[in-house]
């Protein structure tokens, strides 16, 4: 387990004094704090990041700029955040993939390259198809894969947690599926709607709007219980399949950021994540809320890295 580095010099910013990290002048962000999102605009990670950034502007007292730096299943964004100056001027949104991709040789970035600030979310995967498809249950998809008649799954990227969710389901049922990686959940969902792929395994929250509009149909949730906003969608366990998989999201800074700066960011982002505006957004969007503070989040990311090193594609741990 890693230990935090003590600051050798005073932090460049003191949030409590009303001077946000923008005072240190993040590069390319016009003095505002840059928040790096490792996936495309429109997906669940992007949506929650932008809402959290808006809430943080009020609780932290600085302006924010959200930058989507997608590619390589999240690796490009993780690398950009890890390589930023460790002064609080650049934050990164981290997901389960930061604990996975290095094990697959996609990147050298691991949780050791980031210091956790706050975890704010956990969401299970959901197997979702176009509402007009011939698939009415998860077993229909499994049977199609078993006879080689389809089952192409759109994911949020090669080596992503949503790909791991699909591969785990296939392995559990002993079938072969085809995986089509996209740069985030939003384009994967679009591919299902456009008939480019048969299904996707992104979170239920990310497909909620299309399910409620009747465009998509979620066949099963890969969590321990049904989602409140998808009450008619069974869990895999209810369907006789023992597989659970999901993602988590949080805020992190480059490793080596002064401890005092991390503590100040933890305080104001914790307040932002618990604000009425943000919690209301999460509830309405169907995003699961799960809080972990800086130290606990660090330990959790380390445990996830070890876990994925052993399983190479197993489910995330809530």
UniProtKB/TrEMBL annotation:
The alphabetical list of record keywords is:
Receptor, Signal
InterPro entries in the cross-refs: BUG, Bug_dom1
Task: Tell me the first and last residues of the signal peptide.
Answer: 1-22
This protein's record includes keyword Signal = yes
Q: Write down the superkingdom of origin.
A: Bacteria
Q: Does the keyword Nuclease apply?
A: no
Q: Pfam families, per this entry?
A: TctC
- What PANTHER family does the record point to? BLR1237 PROTEIN (PTHR42928:SF5), TRICARBOXYLATE-BINDING PROTEIN (PTHR42928)
Give the family, as the similarity comment puts it. Belongs to the UPF0065 (bug) family.
- Name assigned to this protein: Tripartite-type tricarboxylate transporter receptor subunit TctC
Origin organism is Lipingzhangella halophila
């Amino acid at each position: 387990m890693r230990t935090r580095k003590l600051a050798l010099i005073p932090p460049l910013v003191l949030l409590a004094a009303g001077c946000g990290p923008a005072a240190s002048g993040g590069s390319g962000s016009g003095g505002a704090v840059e928040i790096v999102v490792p996936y495309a605009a429109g997906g669940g990670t992007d949506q929650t990041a932008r809402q959290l950034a808006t809430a943080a502007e009020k609780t932290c007292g600085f302006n924010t700029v959200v930058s989507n730096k997608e590619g390589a299943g999240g690796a490009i964004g993780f690398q950009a955040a890890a390589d930023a100056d460790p002064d609080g001027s650049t934050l990164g949104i981290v997901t389960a993939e930061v604990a996975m991709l290095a094990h697959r040789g996609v990147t050298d970035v691991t949780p050791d390259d980031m210091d956790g600030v706050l975890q704010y979310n956990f969401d299970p995967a959901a197997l979702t198809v176009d509402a007009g498809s011939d698939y009415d249950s998860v077993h229909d998809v499994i049977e199609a894969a078993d006879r080689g008649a389809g089952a192409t799954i759109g994911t949020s990227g090669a080596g992503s947690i949503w790909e791991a969710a699909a591969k785990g389901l296939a392995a559990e049922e002993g079938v072969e599926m085809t995986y089509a990686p996209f740069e985030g959940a939003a384009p994967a969902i679009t591919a299902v709607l456009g008939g480019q792929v048969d299904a996707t395994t992104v979170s239920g929250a990310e497909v909620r709007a299309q399910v409620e509009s009747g465009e998509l149909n979620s066949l099963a949730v890969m969590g321990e219980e049904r989602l409140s906003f998808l009450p008619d969608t069974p869990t895999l366990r209810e369907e006789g399949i023992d597989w659970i998989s999901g993602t988590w999201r949080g805020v992190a800074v480059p490793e080596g950021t002064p401890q005092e700066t991390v503590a100040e960011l933890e305080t104001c982002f914790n307040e932002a994540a618990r604000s009425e505006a943000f919690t209301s957004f999460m509830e309405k969007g169907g995003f699961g809320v799960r809080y972990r503070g800086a130290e606990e989040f660090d330990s959790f990311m380390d445990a996830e890295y070890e876990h994925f090193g052993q399983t190479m594609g197993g489910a995330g741990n809530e």
